[in-house]
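Let's practice the habit of predicting before peeking. Look at the sequence and jot down your guess about where helices and strands might fall. Then scroll down.
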Amino acid sequence: MLDGLWIVETYDSYGSYPGAAWILLAIGLGLMILAYFMIQLKRKRDTRSKDEVPGPQEKRESAAQQFVNRMWKEREAVGGKIILVLLIILAIIAFFHLSLALRMLQISIFVGIITFTFFYIMNDEQGDLKEQEEDLRPESHFMQTFMRLIDYRRHPFSLGLLVFLILVLTCLISKGLGVDLSFETGGNPRYVMSLSTSAVLLSGLTFACGLIYTNQHGDFLGIPQKEQGAYRVFQIHFFEIIVCGASFLIWLGLMILS
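Done guessing? Here is the structure:
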């Protein structure tokens, strides 16, 4: 993911990318696919029945889970203090070095998206999961089949990941062919956002889908395995419509104009 962000962000800075960019991208995808198959094998070997999987009322508590729950409940107070301190630091840095402050702001936004996503996915406040499934189940058989295909509790391969890979591969292939596209990484995009901004938002969506899949099927960083609700998956779909749709249309327009 970080390799892909670096590729998109530095598009206008390189005449051609080093071979390590392709290698790191391939390693990242390979590790993701390997982890998916390892989890699938674990599920097949697991002798527990579905009813024995810890639910929202019977899951075991841990110090990590308690910390996540507490931080999520206090997110407004904690987040407000962090943002205030960060803005003061960035203002001081901008007084001496504006470009460095802007770069740090971009990094802070990315870290903020990842941190917020982590606490949102991993906290326990989900409500009645069975009721969510009933309320959000479409009536059409076709739509039920389609929603199962993009249910990220079943797999981590999201639409956000697909569009993100399209952007990254476009950068690598265009540089390899000697074709320069207007990715507008320097700012002032002609569209609602630049493709480098799109890549950051898409990486956040991909991270959220990976967290849902991981916590649905196993423990993570001391946080016990638990069932993820349909409501969270639908929230991700809502953001996918906005972010993936806008990113793909901007990419498509860029391809046509180029």
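How did you do? Residues 54-59 have pLDDT under 50 and may be disordered.
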